Structure formats: structure tokens, C-alpha cells
Amino acid sequence: MTLLHLEAGPDGEPQARVHLGPALPDSLRRYLTCDGHIKVIGEMGGVAVSVGRAQHIVPDRTRIVVEHRDGGCRVPGCDRRRRTHVHHMVHWEDGGPTDTANLICLCPAHHRMHHRGRLGIHGDADRPDGLVFSDPYGRRLTGHPRPTPPPDPATGPTGSAWQPPLGEPLHRKWIQFDPPPSAN
After folding, report:
1. What is the pLDDT of residue 119?
2. What contacts 145, CB < 8 A, 6 or more positions away?
3. 147, burial (CB in 10 Å: exposed 0-12, middle 13-18, buried 19+)
4. Regarding predicted confidence, which is higher, 156 or 63?
5. Alpha carbon distances (Å) from 85 to 44, 49, 58, 78
6. pLDDT-based confidence at 26, cuts 50/70/90?
7. By CB count within 10 A, which of 27, 43, 92, 100 is most buried?
């Protein structure tokens, strides 16, 4: 299964991006959405609609949104992008909702540090600058924060220079590339 994020571009035309990966050319987007299985994720004001207190386990749709938003572990200076855990900042058993503002991606090491009391996390995860990380003594951690904004779709891949995203090889037997239309 390949996960695609479909978004409206500045001109209102749809644009697609591979989950945790690069933008796709329009021809490949059209091909993949033509007869694919699609899961819809509702958004209001650019924030995914979540499940609140109804569930402890993060649903797949919410997990996909959080992973896409965070782009990897949110701890400043951590470059881990894959195999992250989605963590409730205010723990569910303490009344924390399963909403995107309360969920962040953490690498396994930082997740363990937090649960051992060695990493404090507070704030609103939906805001790029809305989180505060601290050490066991309450000192604020600094460094390059995540999320990094996704690359501009206008500068997305074109032609033969496109490289498949890490961990997701492009199997040519499943995709046929047609020659570009003539300029006539």
C-alpha cells in the first residue's frame, strides 16, 4: 500500500505527496488516484479532525496525519524520521485527548526518556513552534525544531531525475510512464 497526501495547490488544482516523502508529478498522481483505494482524512482549518477521548489507541488516519505533520521525531536536534512512536503528551489515562494537538512523533529513545522522567514535553503539537522540550532539571532544550516545511510542490520531481522515497521502491511492472504530450 502506498499512502498519498492530496492537497489543493495555490491554484486549486490537486497536488500529491508520498507519505513522508516527495511530491509526485501530476501524471503519476492521476494514475495512482484513478483506481486506488482511498482513505479520506477530514480537516478543518488545516488540522485533522480527531477522535478526542473516544479512543486510547491512535487510529491509522490520525497517525498518518501526525507522521506527515511531524516528519519524524520532534525533539530538537533529533534526525530520526522513520519508525517513530505517536505519543500522547498529556497521557490518555490522565485525561489527555487523542487529538493531533496532543500527539507527537518521538523516536523510541526519546519516547523512553520521556516515560522515565528525563524529557519534558509541553505545548500544542499542531503549531510548528508550539512545543517546549526540557531536561530533567526543567531547562529548555534548544536546537533545530521540527516540523520542517515540506518542499514546494512547484519544485517537485520531474522527468528521469525523480528518485523513489526511502523504503518505498518504485516497481516498474506496476507503473507505465507515457511519453510527454507533444507541444503541437
Report:
1. 93
2. 74, 76, 128, 129, 131
3. middle
4. 63
5. 25, 20, 10, 14
6. confident
7. 100
Q: Which of 173, 148, 159 is nearest to 20 (CA)?
A: 148
What is the 3-class SS of the chain, one letter each residue?
CCCEEEEECCCCCEEEEECCCCECCHHHHHHHHHCCCCCCCCEECCEECCCCCCCCCCCHHHHHHHHHHHCCCCCCCCCCCCCCEEEECCCHHHCCCCCHHHEEEECHHHHHHHHCCCCEEEECCCCCCCEEEECCCCCECCCCCCCCCCCCHHHCCCHHHCCCCCCCCCCCCCCCCCCCCCCC
Residue the block writes with cell 506527515: 68
* Choice between 72 and 181, residue whose per-residue pLDDT is larger: 72
What is the pLDDT at residue 176?
Answer: 67
| Confidence at 110, pLDDT banded by 50, 70, 90 | very high
Please tell me the distance from the alpha carbon of residue 98 to that of residue 53, in angstroms, as a whole number.
6
State CA 48 to chain mean position distance.
Answer: 12
Lookup result for grid cell 522527468: 159
* Interstrand relation of 103-106 and 120-123 (parallel, antiparallel or unpaired): unpaired
Q: Say if pTM beats, i.e. exceeds, 0.90.
A: no
